Amino acid sequence: MTRPRISARISAISESATLAVDAKAKAMKAAGRPVIGFGAGEPDFPTPGYIVDAAVEACRSPRFHKYTPAGGLPELKQAIADKTLRDSGYRIEAAQVLVTNGGKQAVYEAFATLLDPGDEVLVVAPYWTTYPEAIKLAGGVQVDVVTDETTGYLASVEQLEAARTDRTKVLLFVSPSNPTGAVYSPEQVEAIGRWAAEHDLWVVTDEIYEHLTYGDASFVSIATAVPELGDRVVVLNGVAKTYAMTGWRVGWLVGPKDVVKAATNLQSHATSNVSNVAQAAALAAVAGDLSAVAEMREAFDRRRRTMVRMLNEIPGVLCPEPKGAFYAYPSVKELLGRDFGGRRPQTSAELAELILEEAEVALVPGEAFGTPGYFRLSYALGDDDLVEGVSRVAKFLTQSR
């Protein structure tokens, strides 16, 4: 009997849908097609110069040519602790910080450290594509709490309670949200946090988009809003979105000391320390002010309003106004099954494929985020490309019968 070449555990992992769409768009562009991509979630701005300068200087330091502590440079861990207090009012020690190779490693290590096989995690859908794979790899069981455009993609305490069982160990809480841009109000954050505390649940909260909110929306950390959660909160964050540093791969995990120590042990065998040069750049970022993100947020806000207006002008498309991050998540359910030049896409995945082929616009279908019938479009791209791309989508979709 021939054994499988690839383990069942790894075979079950899906490719990142957002990166796959981005890769296909770039390949088509390289082949000469004028594709506009709304797939990847990364700022179109360069990393600020003072951060780059810090990295250049670090390259010249012999100290950074050697191994450093697996959990992160001591000065960076302290700077993250200081930044956490500054930005969210959550007081922690440097010993409660683990510096990771990007936010994705922090996500995986959080679940790997907290979950035993069969433990359930409540996940609000739509959700970012990496969460299910990290939970699955850790042996956990994902329990979806599905939201839609009628509530602005926000989950209620009643929905969460209906999904809770005696096997529920963790609530994954994300605000602002990828892919929907939903932001919970301070009152909603507090209510959900108190419910989690009442039932002795862990809360893993992803705060990577903390500085990207618009209008009257504001970011509130659940760790600060609900002190009674105590030492059952794990905060995930990083420099990627705030400082346009997606390629530098520096994230972090903040939590109780025993959790951080266990996750650090895992990282010591998996990757050892994060690149020292990237850590030096991250130190300059988190220790500096927030003027760079203020400029980016102004541009994102302008693009957000333009995209939402244009999408809602397309018959059959309904797009709630995102309050944070840099994504719009319109419903296209009314367009499914219609005739597009002899083809009748039955799913948002099929419709997205058709749009890429015919309109040369790349966007990510809702199937990737656990809710078919939607698209995710990032507005972290230039104003002209944004208008051109949505215009192409509108022109194509209005031809349906």
Secondary-structure topology with pairs:
Blueprint: H1 8-11, H2 17-30, E1 36-37, H3 49-59, H4 74-88, E2 97-100, H5 102-114, E3 120-125, H6 130-137, E4 141-146, H7 157-163, E5 168-174, H8 186-198, E6 202-206, H9 222-225, E7 233-238, E8 251-254, H10 257-270, H11 276-287, H12 291-312, E9 327-328, H13 348-359, E10 361-362, E11 364-365, E12 375-378, H14 383-397
Parallel strand pairs: 1-10, 3-4, 3-5, 5-6, 6-7
Antiparallel strand pairs: 2-8, 7-8, 9-12, 11-12
How does this structure look, described?
By secondary structure, the protein is of the alpha/beta class. The protein contains 14 helices and 12 strands. Helix 9 links the parallel strand 6 (202-206) and strand 7 (233-238). Helix 3 (49-59) runs antiparallel to helix 11, helix 5 (102-114) packs parallel to helix 6 (130-137) and helix 12 runs parallel beside helix 14 (383-397).
